[in-house]
Amino acid sequence: MMVLGLPRELAGLGSALARHWPCGTPYGLRITSVRRSASRQRDPHPWRLALEVDWHDGARRGRQRLHGLTWRDGGSHAAWAQARTQAWADPAAGPSLLHLPELDMLLWAWPNDPGLPQLPALLDPAAWPAGLGPVDLHRHQPGHRASLRRQGVWAKTLAAPVARRLACRFRHFAQVPAAVMHVPRLIAVDAHTLFQADAPVRPLRLADRPADHAPALAAALAAVHQAPRHLGGRRSGDHWPRAIERRRRKLRRVLPVAAPMIDRVADGLLAQAHAVATGPSTLLHGDAHLDQFGVDAQGRLWMFDLDEMCCGDPLEDLAAVLSRDGLPPGIAGRLQAAYREAAPALWCPQRLRWHRGAQALLQATRAFVFQVPDWAAVAERRLQEARSWL
C-alpha cells in the first residue's frame, strides 16, 4: 500500500500497516496531518501524525482513525511495553494500540489519545449534564486539546492541567461591563476540562457591516490589556528574538530562493527588537484574530478562546488582528483609530509598525506550515509586506 507525499522517514508506513494490521486487509490510507517536531533534539517524538485506514476482511469493511507517534533509537519498544499495561477504550473496529517497530512508531485508534486520556470518557453522554443530545467532536489536536459540543454546551479539554487557570480568566472577563464585551458562561471545570454554555453569536467577520463593530472590538482589546497580568502565562524575556530566528531558519530551509529577503526581514526586526521590548507590558489575548470574536442578535460583542493569554506588548494583539488575510473592508483603519482612542497610553505607531512586520513574518511561516494553496508565493508576499513595515 503506497502512500504519496510522506516524508522520507515515514515512507514505509503503508507497507508496515499492511504487515501488522490484525483485522483483515488494509486497502486505503489517508494521512490527515503530519507534524514534524520543531525541537527535534528535545522532543522524544520526531513525528506526530493522524491518519484514516480503510480495511476489509471479506465480509466486513471498516474505517479507523489513528493517531501516531514515532520515537528515536528503538524507544517505541519500551513505550509499547508500557502502553500494553494500560487500559484503552475499544474502538469501533480493530486494535486499540498498534506497534510498527520498523518505523519506531505506536498508533492509537480513535477515541484513544495518549495525551488526552480523558477523551473517551468525554465522548460518553454520561459525562455531561443530563437531558442533552449526542456528543459531537468539533476539533481534535492529537496530544494537545479537543473541543466537543452537546446541544448548547461546549467542552474544551486539554493535555496540560490548566483548565482551572482558564476558568479564572473567564470569571474575570465575565465581570467586565456588558457594554464592553461578553464571554461564554462557565458551567463546570476540572483540572483538564472546561464546560461552557454556547454563545448565540455570528462570527464578527460575518456580521452585518463588520466595520461598524471596530469600536467595540477596540474596547474589548483594551479591556484585555487593562486586566491583571497574573491572568496570563509567562514568556521569556527573549521571546521575540528567539521567535524571529526560528522563523528565519524554517523559511530559509523551505524557501532557499528567498534567503536574502528572509535575512533582511529578520535582521531588520532584530535590530529594532530592543526598542520594542522597552514598551509597556500588559496582559495579551495571545491569539487575537476576528474569529475569536462574535456578535449576537443585539449587536453585543463576545470574546472566546482565552487559552493563549500571556504578557507582552499590547500592540502585538492589535497587529495580529490587522495582519490576517480577509479582513472585511474598512475595518482596519477604524480599528486602529478606535484603539488609539480607547487606550491612548498604550498607543505607539512605531511599535505597531514593528509588530505588523513581525506578524507578517509569522504569516509567511504559517503559509508553509499549513500548506495554504501556492504557499511559496504567499510566503514571498508576506515577506515583502514585512519588509514594508521596517
Write down the oligomeric state.
single chain
N-to-C CA distance = 50 Å
Number of helices: 11
Q: Write down the overall geometry.
A: globular
CATH-level-4 superfamily name of the largest domain: Aminoglycoside phosphotransferase (APH), C-terminal lobe
The count of domains is: 3
In CATH terms, what is the fold-level topology of the largest domain?
A: Aminoglycoside 3'-phosphotransferase, Chain: A, domain 2
Write down how many β-strands occur, each being a DSSP E stretch of 2 or more residues.
15
CATH architecture of the largest domain: Alpha-Beta Complex
Structural class comes to alpha+beta
In this structure, how is the largest beta sheet organized?
5 strands, antiparallel
Low-confidence stretches: 1-5
Which strand order spans the largest sheet, edge to edge or round the barrel? 1-2-3-5-4
Query: Per DSSP, what share of the residues sits in E-state strands of 2 or more residues?
Result: 15-25%
Calculate the mean pLDDT score and round it: 88
Organism: Rubrivivax albus
Domain Aminoglycoside phosphotransferase: 170-347
Pfam families: APH (PF01636)
Protein name: Aminoglycoside phosphotransferase domain-containing protein
What does this structure look like?
The protein has 11 helices and 15 strands. With 390 residues, it is an alpha+beta fold. The protein has 3 domains: 102 residues; 82 residues, Phosphorylase Kinase, domain 1 (2-Layer Sandwich), CATH 3.30.200; 191 residues, Alpha-Beta Complex (Aminoglycoside 3'-phosphotransferase, Chain: A, domain 2), CATH 3.90.1200.10. The strands form 4 sheets. Strands 1-2-3-5-4 form a 5-stranded antiparallel β-sheet. Strands 6-7-8-10-9 form a 5-stranded antiparallel β-sheet, with helices on one face. α7 crosses α10, α7 packs across α11 and α10 runs antiparallel to α11. The longest helix has 21 residues. The chain starts with 12 loop residues before the first helix and ends with a helix. 36% of the residues are buried.
